[in-house]
């Protein structure tokens, strides 16, 4: 099941679609620096009080990213995100019902370069999340680093993003009233280094922290596979063992974020640039995997649930790959 949207295809609408994607891409690439620079620069102008008051607010509100964030529905419903949805386009596909009395932990795969599918589907209402899953409030985890940047932190929280730490996850999953969904891009920044068209490699073999978290809270696990997520950008060759890959890993260890050298098309030409290709993304939400609650699960219990999750994710991929033009002989590879 999915929500159908009328396609937008006039020249003006296509330009607006491109503009919406450009602002999104460059918000990832430069918004953090701009926000930091503006915050500091204001201290040296007659508007210094703005930064001073914000600094006080920032201190008071410092725990909010780990306490469920602060979503703003007006921003989640902005027309900008609908234009961005139609640029690719992005479609959210439902395969099973979710009980609004229950909380859920969703694993999103693959990361891709900029996780466009995760952002549009869970941080906006452009793809109709609330229509497909009534009574469920989505949250998407993001590196805690980004919530330390003035002004940007509030922008991120407005869409439902929360910090990626155990305290933040527990806050969402232990809400007794239910109706909360926490999405984790399991492969994380490291998986982005392998994101290129046609890739079905997932960094998941030894990633078991999210499974342990689900067991500790008795929260059902829901596998998600986003077909087309890796097809939006090309990436400079960086095979394991190469000097570039070693440099990227070193920078990731220092900064906590990966730096894939990606490229695709330009704004006014199609041969080279940082704007993603117009290629469809189909984000398929699988069925919940029941998890028995145990406060201190053993390694064996974690491994059993983790293996079950891998099996269900493979099953989800195999059942839907033909619909989304994935060759029959291509299968998921876990590393």
Topology:
Blueprint: H1 11-42, H2 48-60, H3 73-76, H4 79-87, E1 90-94, E2 104-109, H5 116-123, H6 129-132, E3 137-142, H7 152-158, E4 161-163, H8 166-173, E5 180-185, H9 188-192, E6 201-202, H10 209-217, E7 221-227, E8 234-235, H11 243-255, E9 262-263, E10 281-285, H12 299-320, E11 333-334
Parallel strand pairs: 1-10, 2-5, 2-7, 3-4, 3-5, 6-11
Antiparallel strand pairs: 7-10, 8-9
Helix pairs in contact: 1-2, 1-4
Care to describe what's here?
The chain is an alpha/beta fold. The chain has one domain: Glycerol-3-phosphate (1)-acyltransferase, CATH 3.40.1130. The protein contains 12 helices and 11 strands. The protein has helices at 11-42, 48-60, 73-76, 79-87, 116-123, 129-132, 152-158, 166-173, 188-192, 209-217, 243-255, 299-320, and strands at 90-94, 104-109, 137-142, 161-163, 180-185, 201-202, 221-227, 234-235, 262-263, 281-285, 333-334. The longest helix is centred in the first third of the chain and has 32 residues, at 11-42.
């Amino acid at each position: 099941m999915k929500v159908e949207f009328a396609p937008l295809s006039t020249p003006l609408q296509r330009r607006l679609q491109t503009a919406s994607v450009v602002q999104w891409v460059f918000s990832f690439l430069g918004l953090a620096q701009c926000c930091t620079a503006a915050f500091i620069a204001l201290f040296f102008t007659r508007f210094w009080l703005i930064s001073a008051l914000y600094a006080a607010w920032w201190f008071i509100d410092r725990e909010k990213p780990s306490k469920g964030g602060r979503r703003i529905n007006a921003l989640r419903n902005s027309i900008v995100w609908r234009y961005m949805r139609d640029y690719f386009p992005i479609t959210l596909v439902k395969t099973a019902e979710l009980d609004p009395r229950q909380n859920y932990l969703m694993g999103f795969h693959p990361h891709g370069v900029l996780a466009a599918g995760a952002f549009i589907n869970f941080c906006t209402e452009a793809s109709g999340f609330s229509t497909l899953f009534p009574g469920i409030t989505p949250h998407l985890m993001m590196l805690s680093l980004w919530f330390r940047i003035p002004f940007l932190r509030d922008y991120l929280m407005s869409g439902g993003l929360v910090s990626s730490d155990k305290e933040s996850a527990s806050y969402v999953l232990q809400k007794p009233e239910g109706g909360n969904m926490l999405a984790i891009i399991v492969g994380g920044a490291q998986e982005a280094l392998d994101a290129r068209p046609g890739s079905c490699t997932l960094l998941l073999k030894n990633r078991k922290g999210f499974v342990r978290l689900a067991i500790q809270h008795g929260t059902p696990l829901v596998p998600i596979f986003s077909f087309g997520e890796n097809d939006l950008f090309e990436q400079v060759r960086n095979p394991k063992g190469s000097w570039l890959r070693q440099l990227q890993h070193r920078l990731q260890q220092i900064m906590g974020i990966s730096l894939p050298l990606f490229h695709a098309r330009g704004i006014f030409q199609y041969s080279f640039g940082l704007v993603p290709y117009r290629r469809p993304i189909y984000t398929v939400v699988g069925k919940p995997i029941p998890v028995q609650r145990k406060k201190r699960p053993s390694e064996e219990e974690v491994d059993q649930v983790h293996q079950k999750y891998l099996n269900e994710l493979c099953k989800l991929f195999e059942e839907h790959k033909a619909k989304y033009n994935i060759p029959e002989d291509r299968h998921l590879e876990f590393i």
